[in-house]
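Write out the bound-state structure for iron/sulfur cluster.
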Amino acid sequence: MPSDVLHVTIDRANGPESFEVPAYDNQTVLDVVSWVQQNADPTLSYRFACRVGMCGSCAMMVNGVPRWTCRTHVSKVTDGAAIHVGPLRNLPIIKDLAVDMDPFFDKWVAAEGVHHGGLTRDDSIAVVDEGSATRVEANAGIECINCSVCYAACDTVAGNADYLGPAALQRAWTLLNDAKDEGSVAILDAVSGDGGCHNCHSMGSCTLYCPNELDPMSAIAGLKRETAKNFFWRGR
Ligand code: SF4
Ligand code: SF4
Ligand code: FES
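---
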């Protein structure tokens, strides 16, 4: 049985709307949003899939902070009385809590964050040295699940719609360090441009809020070093 009532405000197309939701121990923010949709207003739009922090689709603003709602317990973000849920920042809103992820993924492509393969099925499988410094760098960001929490946390994205953002740039860094990827020239060109890595002011909101404890800020610092070196060597 519910032990208490949670006062929930949800940002919707026509403005904030309040609901009273039964409160339970170990209740997540996604549980709360789902309760509203199932019991109070079936027209509420939101997105989720796995409920276990693997798909990245349930990210929303919770009391002003971007979070995976399926892995955020209500007790961790409120004193148990009130909570405010909104759509992820820095992305167009489709409806209510569902945002359009296209700009986020378009920037992965713009940053050349896609594999550039050079081998065919007839070539032998490339040997990867798991202990090499470049592999360590590549592995550091490999667990990114494209949730856009870091993108929503980034003030530079908020002020510059062309900025590629932390996730796309981290992916570019991963591929630049991947011995199996042959796109280094294209990657360095892509991340050196107007919306590229040098826009990052290194304040670290992306790293602070990434629920997977990844460190896009350090990946971007790596890109800054490599693009500077590339500029120097090409200019000689
Ligand atoms: S770096 Fe972290 S916060 Fe950003 S998209 Fe990947 S998993 Fe999400
Ligand atoms: S460190 Fe760079 S990418 Fe990360 S939030 Fe700040 S400006 Fe954005
Ligand atoms: S529902 Fe998949 S990460 Fe939250």
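---
The chain has two domains: 4-99, 102-235.
The two ends are 73 Å apart (CA to CA).
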